[in-house]
């Protein structure tokens, strides 16, 4: 059986206040275009099962245009592959806090062949492919209580799909950063990937293998809280073959996001900083036009920022979809009454001090020393991309 695995579509995502010729936010149009590409590729691949692991929309109340776009594409998928089941679960972005609000994803139940699980954990049996898909949407993971994570012995194929953060030693090593806050955590020992033919994950925005048969598909576009951490890799979806245990990543054509090499302005004049920025921008293949670009400069005080060539910076901003000059001031050093300098705590030290002395654990099972160690590991992994 071949399984197409998509996740974190985030339809309706908007940023940067740039619009297309039709008046649509440019980034919303980018995400919509990536989704159309994904549906076209899935149709061409003709898998036996399609899984969408949450966060179809970027907000719980998406715009009418985003809803219509999603309905058209899912309908096209259903019409083009009438014998292929499509199973969709809700992610944290899709899920209202109040159950009375209702979930917009239930609209897609009107499309033949599309199954939506939005609230409670549910095992969906698909007779067409003799498969059972245990669906764990965001609300099912945050509601509390125990959910039985067991395969269905009556089905030939058993698949799990969840939207959340996988915990455990392997995940701690492979998940480089928190792409999205608000997700529930499920330990890998609870999942037990060896008991399933495939485990389809959503919430983490970079395609990542946690076991040979357990993957985050990643997002189809860069829509996380810190897109610069995703700048280096492609976006797309996965196809998993249960017969060969082979996974294939299908990249999509997305807008280029560039995080230029950061540098320190310590000891440099404003003219030298200008030249360093110009060199970095000139080194961009094809120029910055239409791209999303960031240049981080540390140790740059306000006076030198004012003395930069802002006319040229405005030209780059006009050419790019978004050009962010991220100027960060020098570290502040205070002096004590004795005249000795007082060093400001590093971020590592601030985290350690807070966790060991100020924060009160919410559970007696939490190990402070272990938590501090993990916090420092995460800071080391992400500090260069903050």
Describe the structure.
With 386 residues, the protein is α/β, with parallel strands linked by helices. The chain folds into three domains: 2-251, Metallo-dependent phosphatases (Purple Acid Phosphatase, chain A, domain 2); 257-327; 344-385, no CATH class. 28% of the residues lie in helices and 24% in strands. The protein is built from ten helices and 19 strands. It has helices spanning 26-45, 64-80, 138-142, 169-174, 188-191, 270-282, 302-306, 310-319, 347-358, 368-382, and strands at residues 2-6, 49-53, 86-89, 114-117, 122-126, 131-136, 157-163, 165-167, 185-187, 198-202, 208-211, 214-216, 236-241, 246-251, 257-264, 292-298, 322-327, 334-335, 341-342. It has a six-stranded mixed sheet with strand order 4-3-2-1-13-14, covered by helices on one side. A hairpin with a 4-residue loop joins strand 13 and strand 14. Helix 1 (26-45) packs parallel to helix 2 (64-80) and helix 9 (347-358) runs antiparallel to helix 10 (368-382). The chain is globular, with a radius of gyration of 24 Å. The two termini are 41 Å apart. The model has no long low-confidence stretch (mean pLDDT 89).
CATH topology (fold) name of the largest domain: Purple Acid Phosphatase, chain A, domain 2
Structural domain count: 3
Give me the CATH superfamily of the largest domain: Metallo-dependent phosphatases
Structural class: alpha/beta
Oligomerization state of this entry? single chain
Strand content: 15-25%
Strand order of the largest sheet: 4-3-2-1-13-14
* Average of the residue pLDDT scores: 89
CATH architecture of the largest domain: 4-Layer Sandwich
Top CATH class of the largest domain? Alpha Beta
Distance between the termini: 41 Å
Report the strand count. Answer: 19
Tally the helices. 10
Helix/strand order: EHEHEEEEHEEHEHEEEEEEHEHHEEEHH
Summarize the amount of helix as a percent range. 25-40%
Shape: globular
Largest sheet: 6 strands, mixed
């Amino acid at each position: 059986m071949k399984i197409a695995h998509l996740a974190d579509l985030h339809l309706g995502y908007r940023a940067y206040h740039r619009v297309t010729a039709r008046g649509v936010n440019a980034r919303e149009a980018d995400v919509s275009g990536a989704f159309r590409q994904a549906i076209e590729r899935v149709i061409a691949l003709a898998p036996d099962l399609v899984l969408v692991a949450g966060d179809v929309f970027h907000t719980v109340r998406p715009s009418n245009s985003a809803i219509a776009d999603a309905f058209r594409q899912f309908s096209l998928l259903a019409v083009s592959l009438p014998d292929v089941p499509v199973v969709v679960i809700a992610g944290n972005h899709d899920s209202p806090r109040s159950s009375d609000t209702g979930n917009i994803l239930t609209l897609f139940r009107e499309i033949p062949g599309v199954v939506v699980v939005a609230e409670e954990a549910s095992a969906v049996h698909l007779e067409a492919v003799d498969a059972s898909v245990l669906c764990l949407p965001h609300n099912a993971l945050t509601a509390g209580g125990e959910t039985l994570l067991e395969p269905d012995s009556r089905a030939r194929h058993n698949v799990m799909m969840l939207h959340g953060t996988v915990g455990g030693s392997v995940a701690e090593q492979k998940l480089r950063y928190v792409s999205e806050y608000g997700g529930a955590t499920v330990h890998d020992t609870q999942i037990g990937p060896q008991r399933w033919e495939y485990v389809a994950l959503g919430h983490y925005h970079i395609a990542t293998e946690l076991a040979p048969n357990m993957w985050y598909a990643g997002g189809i576009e860069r829509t996380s809280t810190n897109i610069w951490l995703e700048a280096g890799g492609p976006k797309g979806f996965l196809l998993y073959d249960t017969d060969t245990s082979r996974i294939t990543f299908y990249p999509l054509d997305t807008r280029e996001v560039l995080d230029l090499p950061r540098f320190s302005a310590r000891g440099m004049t404003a003219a030298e900083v200008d030249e360093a920025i110009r060199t970095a921008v000139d080194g961009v293949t094809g120029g910055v036009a239409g791209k999303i670009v960031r240049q981080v400069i540390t140790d740059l005080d306000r006076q030198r920022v004012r003395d930069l060539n802002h006319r040229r910076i405005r030209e780059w901003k006009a050419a790019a979809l978004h050009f962010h000059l991220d100027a960060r001031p020098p570290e502040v050093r205070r002096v004590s009454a004795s005249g000795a300098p007082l060093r400001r705590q590093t971020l590592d030290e601030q985290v350690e001090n807070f966790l060991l002395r100020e924060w009160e654990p919410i559970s007696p099972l939490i190990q402070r020393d272990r938590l501090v160690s993990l916090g420092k590991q995460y800071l080391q992994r992400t500090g260069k991309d903050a």
